[in-house]
Amino acid sequence: MIVTSQPRTQPDITPEQKPSVSPTKPVLIRLERLCKAYTEAGQSHMVLDELNREFYTGEFVCLLGKSGSGKSTLLNLISGIDAPTSGDVMIRDGAREVTITALSEHARTLFRRNHIGIVFQFFNLIPTLTVLENVTLPLELAGKANGTRDRAVALLERVGLANRLASYPDKLSGGEQQRVAIARALVHDPLLVLADEPTGNLDDETGVTVLKLLLELTRDAGKTLFMATHAPDVAEQADRVLHLVHGKLVNDQLAKSNG
Description:
CATH class of the domain at 58-83 and 105-258: Alpha Beta
CATH superfamily of the domain at 58-83 and 105-258: P-loop containing nucleotide triphosphate hydrolases
CATH topology of the domain at 58-83 and 105-258: Rossmann fold
Radius of gyration: 18 Å
Largest sheet: 6 strands, mixed
Number of strands: 10
Distance between the termini: 42 Å
């Protein structure tokens, strides 16, 4: 069952949290009082503390923060991989706003499969599938059989791997594997692309190439890209930059290179 939210009054945002950007594009993601806490040795640790934010269609949002600051946790909550301790994540799907956090685990999986693309730091390719099979898998899982191979081949051509369709992941370099992962994330035409340290496992030169390719493909397709990283230089390419500090989103601003 898909749960759609009713119109709500935007929750109060403290002065240090107020974003300095006011895009005219439609809101795609909305966070309302989003919290995530873990219990360890009988003690509760707040990782994300009352996050209130809106993110817009077509934005490249860069989330900066130290290792362990909660960046991956936030991406997992937005994607529905994990559930929050309290609060809500809403994602706009056409004319409706879907409350991801109100869905069952199975329903979240189906929503993610159909509407969200994810690029992981460690590629997460299936070793027993070829390059082409890895990229077509999301379409097959979503029941989109028509044109599956053609769309996958076209994306693999865009990422420069047209000659590696029958290769297996262990025969590819790290940069090639991440390019396959980018094609896989985009093949089902998602509403949103989440990237969790996508260049973190690559050397600097390869990382620059992969980042350029990811930005080119998502911007050409008009997709929202939400990237978590600890590398400040990546933020120079973003439309909007936030910092996750002590469980709070702070310093919400346009990147310098974008005005």
